[in-house]
């Protein structure tokens, strides 16, 4: 075990209780917040009482039909998968070049890739939307995919570069000595070694793209809305749709994205997303 | 012929020594895409911001923005939300991550529970806040029944609603990063300090925190970036006409309600500048810390 001596007595100190108390307070309020949305999504009507008088599931059916949820889900999935595919296809080779070579202008390239991650999406989203309107790409699926690629591609490069740096160059040299060509080194040696990293980056991009509101909101049209944009539009124009139906849709969204996150957590150790942490071997 | 071939080979060798060879071609597609979809629109936007719709010189838009207090006030309103949100998220993550470092039973589950709010989405959080903290919501009912307050506390459709929303959606990110940096710190260092007679507080103050500081700076930057682009929650749980009219709302209104793309680009550029200023300040501050090989330092 790691540090039993340091931890012993931790529960008895008041400081630990303050921390756990704060965590409990946060979680209780959060659970109540989520629960109030879930309860409302099943309520016939709910005004000014502790609990609604009667429950129903019709809002889910309503949401499904009124919002055209099956179409919206289809668009969401299509956009997200296309973004993941393109970001990996372009990003992994770029990460390889950045991890293996030191060249003049590398800092400039790194800065170019870092900026889309650092700037708020609205900052480049508005000029990007203007440009896409100019090329008549705004409102189309390709426009939405292109816009979402802007933060996704640098993200893949930034996640994959340290991953590739970890792989011993000798493995590649050995493959070359055995007569493998560049393509074969990639497909037979590197990609199999990189599968965990590629999976991790891919799922994280998937989660982020499903959750990316601003960019999709700025460039999407009626036929290219993803779930979160449809949800926001419904919530921002109250009165047109029943509040319970919006809540039902929000619950569907949360279920979808938490399913994705759980999937991601199965492949990625959450504490290793940013830094390649060397696990301390148990002594 | 042979000499020319040798010369070319020599050239290639010399370039390879400087790290330039065919591997770099792999970089080209990604850089082209980022240049086309990010750099070109950004430069186009800067150019657009210098061509005001109403004329009056290239900087007319910028002058107009700063002269109109309804517009320039958005900078302060954005900072007033984003800075505390980022600070609280990072600050709260540190003691929790400190408790969760090392291994013990239930650590993975607790981590997952704390990270899961990432998936809630701004709309569900906004809806939930409106219901839960509303005048008839459970939170106010409990307070009223306990006679802690005489009338419902107003926590939505103002500054507080947006801040809560930013805390809920931003905390998991900050926590995940801090936990990751915290796990990167070699636990033997702390044990060494304990062996030398340092109490728990001194171990935190003189060993863990200094090693963590650069990582905290990185986390703060990312949390700040996230909070700075606050848009949906400012509209849904805030007071978008006044108290929470953040820069993103101003830019959006200019573009899609007034169709003044030039002004919208101006606000977008100023938004980027204001944010990068804070980021640069934090980076300068971060540069003063130890960034050696022991973890917790961030990239």
TrEMBL record, chain A:
Keyword Membrane applies: yes
All copies of domain ABC transmembrane type-1, residue ranges: 73-264
Chain ranges passing through the membrane: 15-35, 42-61, 73-99, 111-133, 145-164, 185-207, 250-268
Highest taxon above the source species: Bacteria
Principal subcellular localisation of the protein: membrane
Topology term for the membrane: Multi-pass membrane protein
InterPro entries tied to this protein: MetI-like, MetI-like_sf
Entry's localization field: Cell inner membrane; Cell membrane
Cited CDD domains: TM_PBP2
Pfam families hit by this protein: BPD_transp_1
PROSITE patterns, per the entry: ABC_TM1
UniProt keywords, alphabetically: Cell inner membrane, Cell membrane, Membrane, Transmembrane, Transmembrane helix, Transport
Family: Belongs to the binding-protein-dependent transport system permease family.
Protein name per the record: ABC transporter permease
Source organism per UniProt: Sphaerisporangium corydalis
UniProtKB/TrEMBL annotation, chain B:
UniProt entry tagged with the keyword Transmembrane helix: yes
Domain of life (superkingdom): Bacteria
Keyword annotations from UniProtKB, A to Z: Cell membrane, Membrane, Transmembrane, Transmembrane helix, Transport
ABC transmembrane type-1 domain ranges (all copies): 75-282
Topology in membrane: Multi-pass membrane protein
Subcellular location: Cell membrane
Chain segments annotated as transmembrane: 23-43, 81-98, 110-133, 159-181, 211-231, 261-285
PROSITE patterns noted in UniProt: ABC_TM1
InterPro entries, alphabetized: MetI-like, MetI-like_sf
SUPFAM superfamilies linked to this entry: MetI-like
Similarity field: Belongs to the binding-protein-dependent transport system permease family. CysTW subfamily.
Protein's name in the database: ABC transporter permease
Protein source organism: Sphaerisporangium corydalis
